[in-house]
Amino acid sequence: DARAVSNSMKDIDVCLHLAAAGNVQASIENPVDYFSVNVLGTLNILEEARKYDIRIVFTSTGMVYYTKDKGLIDENHIVKASSPYVASKIAAENLCVAYHHTYGLPVTILRPFHVYGTGIPAYTSVIFRFIESKLKGTNLAIYGDGSQIRDFTYMDDCVDFILKATFAKNIDGEIINSGTGRGISIHELALMVLPDENRITHLPHHHPQCEVQRLVCDYSKAKKLLGWEPHVRLEDGIKLLENWIKNNLQ
To answer: For 225, how many CA atoms within 13 A lie in the half-sphere containing its CB?
Structure first.
């Protein structure tokens, strides 16, 4: 909302822009809504930032990448709009680049890979859904064959990444990845959460045309520019999230 944005951005030095609509399936069903929130919403923020020369730290997503390579994905890899959601994030990134290039607005773009942890909505986190199903005694549902490979970053590491980028010097105009460099298939992930093949159900993929087979992060640029690297192993992060769900949501 342009008015709310205007009221919020007076007398500040930096804006951490993390707000987004983030469900791929919902973006397929309602692409106009997604562009309204993710693209026009970002434009509202950039316009206010331009008035007062406010630094923008824009959180995008590692899902913008599209590759079949088996190696790690660095910031120079090709991006592709594999869904309306991803298209909206790429468009928002391009707006940030345009405002930096055209107006000299200090902007940094961050691309975290598949963040999970406490407080993150279940619809955006397959790990959350798996743990929830495990605790409810229901089967863990996998869309497709589960061979898709992802790189999962625990929330605390992502927060540390964003804060380091916020206070770093001389990174205006940069695009920076964060992830762990470790890939795991969704089927293997399900077995890590609950090592019982009989509790895993494979369902027809509801948007196979939008699926990217492999997303594994090269975070060497973040390490070089920010001194950042992940600390929470996937196994430990799953335990932390499971304990939180037990204590807060049951």
So the answer is: 24
**What residues form DSSP beta bridges with 65?**
79
Q: What number of other Cβ atoms are within 10 A of residue 118's Cβ?
A: 16
CA distance 190 to 130: 7
Beta bridge partners of 16: 57
Q: Phi first, then psi: what are they for 100, rounded to 5°?
A: -70, -45
Q: Which residues are catalytic?
A: 85
Q: How many angstroms separate the CA atoms of 128 and 141, rounded?
A: 12
Question: pLDDT by residue (tens digit) across 213-248?
Answer: 999 999 999 999 999 999 999 999 999 999 999 998
Residue that is written with structure tokens 């991006």 in the block:
79
Q: How confident is the model at residue 250 (pLDDT cuts 50, 70, 90)?
A: low
Contact criterion met (CB below 8 Å) for 132 and 80: no
Average pLDDT over residues 62-70: 87
As a whole number of angstroms, the distance between CA 169 and CA 18 comes to 20
- CA angle 194/207/151 to nearest 5° reads 45
Is-contact 186 151, C-beta < 8 A?
no
Q: Facing residues of 2 across strands?
A: none
- Paired strand residues for 184: 150
Parallel, antiparallel or unpaired: strands 149-150 and 184-185: antiparallel
pTM strictly above 0.85: yes
Distance CA 124, CA 116 (A): 8
Query: Mapping DSSP to helix (H, G, I), strand (E, B) and coil, where does residue 120 land?
Result: coil
